[in-house]
Amino acid sequence: MTTTAQALDLPFDEAIAFLRQKTAxxxxxxxxxxxxxxxxxxxxxxxxxxxxxxDFQASISKALxxxxxxxxxxxxxxxxxxxHGWSYKGERGWxxxxxxxTNLRTAYAAGRYAQMSAPDTLAxxxxxxxxxxxxxHPRVDHKDWDDLCLSADDPFWTTNYPPNGFRCGCFASPVxxxxxxxxxxxxxxxxxxxxxxxxxxxxxxxPSFAYNPGKAWLEQTAPxxxxxxxxxxxxxxxxxxxxxxxxxxxxxxxxxxxxEEAAAGxxxxxxxxxxxxxxTIRSLANQLDATPAAYGTIPRQLVKSGRVVKGDGAQHIITxxxxxxxxRMAMDVIRDDKGTDIRVTSLKSMAKKx
Length: 354
Known about the structure:
A hairpin with a 2-residue loop joins strand 10 (325-336) and strand 11. It is globular, with a radius of gyration of 23 Å. The chain has 14 helices and 11 strands. The protein has 2 domains: 4-219, no CATH class; 230-349, no CATH class. By secondary structure, the chain is α+β, with helices and mostly antiparallel strands.
């Protein structure tokens, strides 16, 4: 099996830059930072103070830059835990190995992506090959993808660029046109079917690993809504899947929960769910005024701090400014003998504030 040290070889500038640019984020749960948000945020699940997280980040950076080992990280881990009085969950050996390997492998993957996606490199190596780690107890899908060669722009690499889970040692490597022929291929392989019935999670990928570390790092520099938590990412995935017809009419997902202030304006009970239906998304498909990620992030913030205005009939509007951008969300509040049902009918970004 490929070890972390063997897979990393020597540290290089891109991997170091990826790790250094991350912001230390305190969390209560591993679900607080999800998918591509990991490329901008450094977290250790349950480490709920910035000081603890910054100490862990410094130790991981030392491992990447100086080549220190898991044993050294475990010494740092013990010192950090003692210094901050942190009570963590899980067995020490498993926890330290997971933190160490996941962060190093992800930094390596991001750095390798930055190198392989450079224009000159892409011109010479337009294909990428999936390489299985050789684990004794492999994930079946990962083993099946061993030697899979796809175009560098194949959608597969957006969600399934390795690592694809905890302890996953798979990696991608560049392949030239002559190299493709030497592999006995006349062209790129067919892109695998990643759909799994009843879920938006791509096949062969652990939860919160459905992203390309390097792509997310290089592209998430622009402002705008980004689905960060598991709940936000779930809404964004629901919108994407609804647009593709994967959720039938009648399907819905909660996008927010009304607090005391919003509940008073909507004349409902605090704690009532505000829902988004697949049918609504499809009806707006040709005039969707917000991205899937915005549907995942903005409704929660509007319900928390926006202003509720009564519209015509059952319609209510919530407006508010978020990160210098004005937003407007329309909802129908439907009351019958079964209770109260609140459905989002539209979400729009208005003109930017001066």
